[in-house]
Amino acid sequence: MKAVADSKETTIYQYQLIQKIHYSPLSKSLLHSIFGVYCLYMVMLLGWMSLIWIMFSFIFIWMVHGAGLFLICWRGGIPFLEHWRFTWYPMHYGFIPNVDFYPLKSYRIMIGNMALIGFIAAAAAYPWIPVQGLGVHIIVIHIWMILFRLTILLRFSRYPGHYLIKFGQKDTFLYKQ
């Protein structure tokens, strides 16, 4: 039996952890509290139907983000379903990379385009929205969902694009190869 080190087909990658963002229970509670206060304020302002429109806003923004990512991947010749997945992680509601290590530069491009596409879709849909407050819900939910991704990008902004990013349920890691 040959040793693994002797095999010519073996590829060994070494990753060095550069930075780790840990999501504490307090930050998750703060995230949900901010959203709860927003929902409560909207119910007081617009009534109970506001909760249905907030849920509709989530679905609309997830569809816009998914369609935008799909088009970007399709344009780049990247298989969408192999590289992106939908998640319920508390700090990453929506789409995140489906691979263990994703290039930081590609993530920056995708999140920037996702933010832009979401604002364009919200602005384009706004004149035809018949429900009072629904346009505001769509924009607020989009900002709320993009804000955490932009926070990650700001924390990793000083690092070059060839570094790799990895997502977990409780942490986000930045590695150097």
Structure, described:
Keywords: Membrane, Transmembrane, Transmembrane helix. Helices cover 55% and strands 15% of the residues. With 177 residues, the protein is an alpha+beta fold. The protein has one domain. Strands 1-6-5-4 form a 4-stranded antiparallel β-sheet. Strand 5 and strand 6 (171-176) form a beta hairpin. Helix 2 crosses helix 5 (134-155) and helix 4 runs antiparallel to helix 5 (134-155). The protein is globular, with a radius of gyration of 19 Å.
Question: Which SSEs are present, and which pair or pack?
Answer:
Elements: E1 16-22, H1 25-46, H2 49-76, H3 80-83, E2 84-87, E3 94-97, E4 102-103, H4 104-125, H5 134-155, E5 164-167, E6 171-176
Antiparallel strand pairs: 1-6, 2-3, 4-5, 5-6
Helix pairs in contact: 1-2, 2-4, 2-5, 4-5
